[in-house]
Amino acid sequence: MTNSELLLSCIEKYNITLEEISAELGISRDKLLRKLNGQEEFRASEIKKFVNKVPMSEAEVQACFFAEDVTKCHEDKN
Questions:
Q1: I want to staple 24 with a disulfide (CB 3.0 to 4.6 A). Which of 40, 47, 53, 55 is the partner?
Q2: pTM of the entire predicted model
């Protein structure tokens, strides 16, 4: 699941507009907003394009897109 609050914070931090991101991903602004609001999931290809546009650190990418799911999977194995 996407950490929308942190993701939006990264977008602001790097001064990238939602229009620029939606154009990079090849989706509408409305579809991007649904993804940012957790109504739809980002696909792997979209995450890759997102990171190409927004110069996030690896830690930021993990925290924004994967942290919750990875933590849950790790806990389930123990």
A1: 53
A2: 0.77
